[in-house]
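TL;DR need structure tokens for one chain.
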Amino acid sequence: MDLLTAVEVTQLCLSYGERDVFSDISFRVNFGDIIGISGKSGCGKSSLLHCLCGIIPRFIPANIKGTVKIMGCDLAQMSLAEISTKIGLVGQNPETQVFMPTVEDEIAFGLENMCIAPVEIEQRIDWALDCVGMNGHRKTKPALLSGGQKQLIALACALSMDASIFLFDEPLAFVDEEGRKKLLPIIKNLAQDGKVVIMVDHMSENLQICNSIIGLENGTAKEHFNDTYTARY
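>> reply
TL;DR here they are.
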């Protein structure tokens, strides 16, 4: 691994029982990259993302072969605490991610589990909400927020953990056009700040911010430069 490499996947194979999902997938992601993962429904996009953060096989039983290295470390040998400081995961449905009484409670939850000092937790909450433009909603009940606003809070939670790698599983699926216009620039800014973004999406217009795309089809993957890459957002 060189100093630019954040994620390195080598000959990754996944199956659920007798059903093969994908095999022999290899790719490398550098800091500052935005990588899209595309393909038809059921091709293994979300499963690949879950392999990259350890959800598979730690929480979702599956047969997995090959290696995933995160910043030079074998993911299989990393503790959950180590993973949580390096990888932030934002799913597609904010209703399943945001569940605490207030926005500030939601962001503080993960930080408290990491035993972060209370003073620093307060600072991180302020900073994360400012990053996503939601600093006026610190005391708001999540139930009062729109789907797009809840997704911004989910992103703020990931930002507060000071991760270097962000995994997005169709982050715009439950977001309206206004929310989409807010989220895409934030995602792109992460890469401009030297972070890594790996984003699953089946909508080509959402993948225009990616500099390359990994296409999953028939259990194999092909990475190619995104000819439609644009600085639009």
